[in-house]
Amino acid sequence: MAGAPFTVRPSEAWDGNDGPWSTFALGFGTPPQFVRVLISTTCPQPWAVDPLGCTATDPASCTTDRGGVFNKSRSSSWQGEGLYDLSQELNLGYGGNGDWGRDAITLGYPGSGAIAVNNQLLATIATKDFYIATWGIAPRPTNLSRVDSARNTFANSYPSLLSQLKEEASIPSLAYGYTAGARYQLKRVSASLTLGGYDASRFVASNLTFSLADDNSRDLVVGVQSISVIGLSKELLPKPILAFIDSAVPHIWLPVEACRVFEETFGISWDPSSDLYLVNETTHEALLAQNANLSFRIGANTITSDFIEIVLPYASFDLQVLDTYPNITNSTRYFPLRRAANDTQYTLGRRLLQETYLIADYERSTFSVNQCRFVENNDPDIRPIFPANATNSTTGAPPFDQDRKHDSSDLSPGIIAAIAVGSSVFLAILVGISTLLRRRRSKGKTPNSDHLDQTSMAPEPSESTIEQELHADPIVPAELDGIGLGPREMEDSVAATEMSAVEGERHELHG
Fold it and tell me: In a structure prediction context, what are the per-residue pLDDT tens digits for the chain, which is 511 residues long?
């Protein structure tokens, strides 16, 4: 019997050295040691920060700053597997390895309706590339392969945490609904995560679904057709691109030519040392005064006429980077835009998911992106996504079956601004048409003509591997096999993440 959707309560904390970001709590080991984690839509397994992730040269608050640590030696149920690379975000320059093993995991704090999973694969990390621990919710399995001293290869495959929850009937399907939360909205709106379903109260339905890409390491791919400033005839994206939605990273990675348009439009400057767009107080005040709302037009590809507009207020770009971030001496404000070296780096990170509700249905290989709605004292509306083979389900992840009507008070200020601008344009068009028709009546009407010819006003379509130490240095990528995928009805049809190690060689864990 399939389980019900499981909604995880957020930790109510805001963490990160490039944030702040709304986190969740995971308990690792027996008895559980609770740490705060960020959601990764790319990673299939959870990671906890190892005590070695905080060194003598780090601030005294390092353990707290990193959301807490998991000490494996204090868990009676830990079963070590060895050191393997992490194999995540390599294309963006992130690196490091993990001390992998199996242990019990508790999803949420005690008293929150938490679910416990035993013998789950996880990794402890010391690298600061991933400053806060990670809860991976991708469904693909992980293969740990090792080579012994005689050069014989041994491999073991482990299910993802999401798959394990479905297998144990804790959730109904390989699906989830997620938004990253927005500290600047209302009275700080925390993140929302529902496994096996979604919370219909958190978004305005787009009525569009997209197919997952064949490469399961970059499956949530959308066509970004345009990025514009609402109210201005200013296009920030010189040409449409395909971009990957990835909650594991905080930034938006765009082509260099697009970044230069952002620089001209907002007066921001790129800092080559940190590779960030740092913002001084003068520029910050100017940006606050401008208070721009950015519109991202997103479709299944770069030319389809079916698309959704996601509106991002400037407040969502107004972030602070702390001095624990690489090559940052003093905490400062920054604009979360990154220069992409090539098209493999085009990424829409956690920044986008502050204003976007993502629904991923791996049972049917589809997903959707929807504009968040922010309402005081919001009542959750949790809806299940049934398995693809369920006899009582003809649809998967919706949001098309919503029977709720949302008025304009549900919408964020950015959307309201977009509607206002659009309404003004539409009104101007109506006035023009009315004037034209009156002229035609005065000039062309005959005694026998008591009606006008009708002109079609339809809109034109838019054209729219060996890792010996656990540290933060770049690593040799592990190979990801099986990129050609069919429908993801079972985890076996999802290609695994493969990681390698060699027995008999020195392995160390460094921060």
Answer: 678 999 999 999 999 999 999 999 999 999 999 999 999 999 999 999 999 999 999 999 999 999 999 999 999 999 999 999 999 999 999 999 999 999 999 999 998 889 999 999 999 999 999 999 999 999 999 999 877 778 877 789 999 999 999 999 999 999 999 999 999 999 999 999 999 999 999 999 999 999 999 999 999 999 999 999 999 888 999 999 999 999 999 999 999 999 999 999 999 999 999 999 999 999 999 999 999 999 999 999 999 999 999 999 999 999 999 999 999 999 999 999 999 999 999 999 999 999 999 999 999 999 999 999 999 999 999 999 999 987 665 445 554 443 333 443 444 444 444 444 444 444 444 444 444 434 333 333 333 333 322 222 233 333 333 333 555 433 333 333 322 223 333 333 455 666 555 444 445 665 6
Minimal CA–CA distance to 218: which of 45, 344, 358?
344
Contact 105/164 with Cβ under 8 angstroms? no
Per DSSP, 345 falls in state: G
Contact present, 221 and 213 (Cβ < 8 Å): yes
Give the chain's largest Cα–Cα span: 101
The residue among 57, 48, 9 whose CA lies nearest residue 29 is 48
Query: Could you tell me which of 414, 378, 275, 395 has the C-alpha nearest to residue 335?
Result: 275
318-to-281, 303, 350 alpha-carbon distances in Å: 12, 31, 13
Give a three-class secondary structure readout of 415-458: HHHHHHHHHHHHHHHHHHHHHHHHHHHHHHCCCCCCCCCCCCCC
**pTM: predicted TM-score of the whole model, two decimal places:** 0.81
Q: What's 492-508 look like in SS3? A: HHCCCEEEEEECCCCCE
Do residues 439 and 424 make contact, with C-beta atoms less than 8 angstroms apart? no
CB–CB of 155/481 below 8 Å?
no
Closest CA to 202 of 36, 350, 369: 369
C-alpha separations of 453 from 374, 443, 446, 449, 464 in Å = 46, 14, 13, 10, 31
Supply 383's token pair.
């809806």
DSSP 189: B
The CA-CA-CA angle for residues 51, 98, 503, to 5°, reads 120
Sequential DSSP letters for 200-243: GGGEE-----EEPPS-TTS--EEEEEEEEETTS--BS-SS-EEE
145 three-state secondary structure? strand
Distance set, CA 71 to CA 35, 51, 274 (Å) = 11, 6, 31
